[in-house]
Amino acid sequence: MNIIEKHFMRYFLLLFWVGLVFSCKTSEEPKIGLITENAMVVSAHPLASEVGKQIMEEGGNAVDAAIAVHMALAVVYPEAGNIGGGGFFVIRNQDGSTHSLDFRERGPLLAHRDMYLDEDGEVIDRKSIKGHLAAGVPGAVDGMARAHERFGSLPWKQLIQPAIDLAERGFVLSEAEAAKFNRAKENFNQYSTVNPSQFTGKEWEENDTLVQSQLAETLKLIRDQGRDGFYKGQTAKYIVEEMERGEGIISYEDLEKYESTWRAPLEGTYKNFKLITMGPPSSGGIIILQMLGILEDREISRNGEAYAEYLHLKTEMERRIYADRATYMADADYYPVPVQELLDRNYLSQRFQTFNPEKATPSDEIAAGKILSMSEETTHFSIVDPEGNAVACTTTLNGGMGSSVVVDGAGFILNNEMDDFSIKPGHPNMFGVLGGEANQIEPGKRMLSSMTPTILEKDGQLFMVVGTPGGSTIPTSVFQAIVNVVEFGMGMQQAVNEPRFHSQWQPELIFYEKEGMDQGIKSAMENKGHSFSERGGIGRVDGILVLPDGRLEGGADPRGMDEAFGF
After folding, report:
1. Which residues does 197 contact at the CB level (< 8 Å), separation at least 6?
2. Is residue 92 part of a domain?
3. One of 36, 193, 378, 396 is an active-site residue; which one?
4. Residue 325, helix vs strand vs coil
5. Spatial CA neighbour of 479 closest among 327, 315, 367, 323
6. Residue 378 annotated to the active site
7. Is the pTM of this model over 0.85?
8. Domain shared by 170 and 250, yes or no
9. Is residue 89 situated within a structural domain?
């Protein structure tokens, strides 16, 4: 019996459980996550988590499981899990060695800095967000192939087959998933050149089965031909033909030349913890290390008024650091990102000299610091295997359903990552984040990201694997999960469940989750000059915590269908 047949019945039960989750407030959810002895996967979809678990039960390591989970998410979570986008791997092997793989999308060779501006130099509405020109050159398949080439232990075909089974046989939709596809129909019909009837062919209802036959055939090519099954041959032909019909610019040459890149992870310390995270072209690692660097010498508490003081401190950090992001952070292959200078403790101290514990600093009084020398539809999964190898992977199409362009014949959705470039200095992207010259559009360049896959060590031993989707809220959500565990003594599930808050320089607001703000704390913050904006869930953090006795606790975010599996 294969993975899909074995767990269809269980999946119906999971849909019922998810319905219960959505009907409950965060504060009423269980505080302890799944605990296992040997291995764990936490991802955005129970079927993908189950695939990863099964791969490890068959003898695969964390990277094998990550590849299989990534491909399964391309089927069961197509709005973010993908083969039409890109992302980052952070890996910590059992022997303590660390690695990071950048498979971020790249600007097409015909891209140029003013491609989204009209003749008067003004931004053309939504041109960088929807349609064929919004897509960067996908990196996901190349990234999975590179990871397997270096660290894989099971045969490639064995890792891809579960995704093929899911696409061919279909999977059952929850009520929320059905609604999601119904909402996406209008954009699919507007921006895809050929009606993607697998998504738009009916009014979706709970318990319907979604079958993706075109995607299954594409996955078979990837299974049988590896990287070439995507970047060459029939799939490449489908992509280029889609570009030609929709006046896009991704070419055969773009696909042939795409390469993911192994980079040295960005590492830093916080007290007796070591953080292993992603450096440029991600801004996320720099941001959380800057925030922790400022926090390290300060006392914080969750008790009463002290928690308002912590949120004030956190907001003031975010305003200053996101101003740095707009000025200094980009693809380091194209711009000299001053990473060490941005993380220097003297620099961080200087950045915080204007901090007033009693009053909010207006954003128009904040600019990037003076350097003396010179990444909301994403998904994350965390994996620990029986040997103690760990993978944190964050991958994305950028916005929900990406560019809303489905490649006809190949059956997958293209990203809209070009919006993560600075399409015009000072113009906000779809997440409201401002950009500058450092992140301008250039051919072959990787757009700046907020993705923050992160692994923590404590006293030299694996301690935590964590990450989240959420656009510009990613680094602050990861930061909050870390602080909840390290400073506030929470377990992984409780840390994930806690209400989250986010600020980012511009707009000058603190975003908070519905029903997630204590009114007394809100009033105390407003008295300091802060303004608030209520919104839906912030991020979907998925993490794994190594408990003192060596067991693993999974934290699967109840804001989605996220689920932990292990053994």
Report:
1. none
2. no
3. 378
4. helix
5. 315
6. yes
7. yes
8. yes
9. no
